[in-house]
Amino acid sequence: MGRDFRRNLWACLPAGAALLVLVGCGGSERGGGKYSVTLAWDAPTTNADGTPLTDLAGYNVYDGETSGIYTAVTDVGDVTTFTLKGLPAGLRFFAVTAYDSSGNESDFSVEVSATLPIAVGDIRAGD
Q1: Do residues 27 and 65 touch, judged by C-beta distance below 8 A?
Q2: 126, CA 20 to 30 Å: which among 11, 28, 55, 119?
Q3: CA distances from 122 to 1, 32, 34, 87, 115 (A)
Q4: Which candidate, 103, 111, 38, places its Cα nearest to that of 70?
């Protein structure tokens, strides 16, 4: 039932907006990885149908190792910058969705990617 309302909620990042990625080291909140990625995005102001967005409740950040296939989701609340910590080395893909106070979720934002550097500790003999 909630999916019927998706078309009325923010459909994607506003035209001209960017999903920004900043890569760093440190943190171990997820899976014991050594890297962190900071994502930033513009808050939507209108629904897909052009009406004012008055019930935005927060955002979900999605990430995964394959484009368009996200294996993890983090509810970040009502913020427009978030740092994912504890990511492993390698190529990662990210997207953001918005959700309203009724729990309706938007379509995915434009996808961005980042290649996380390989740390010396990740290199093993025979690899």
Answers
A1: no
A2: 28
A3: 45, 12, 9, 13, 15
A4: 111
Q: Which residues pair with 90 in a beta bridge?
A: 116
Tokens of 108: 């995915």
Give me the torsion for CA of 66, 67, 70, 75, rounded to 10°.
130
Residue-wise pLDDT for 11-31, tens only, equals 334 433 445 555 554 444 455
Taking the CA atoms of residue 33, residue 105, residue 82 and residue 91 in that order, the dihedral angle to the nearest 10 degrees is: 40
Query: What does the block give as tokens for 68?
Result: 């368009």
CATH architecture of 2-116: Sandwich (2.60)
pTM as predicted: 0.73
Q: The tokens 């008055």 sit on which residue?
A: 54
Q: Which amino acid is at 6?
A: R
Q: Which amino acid is at 121?
A: G
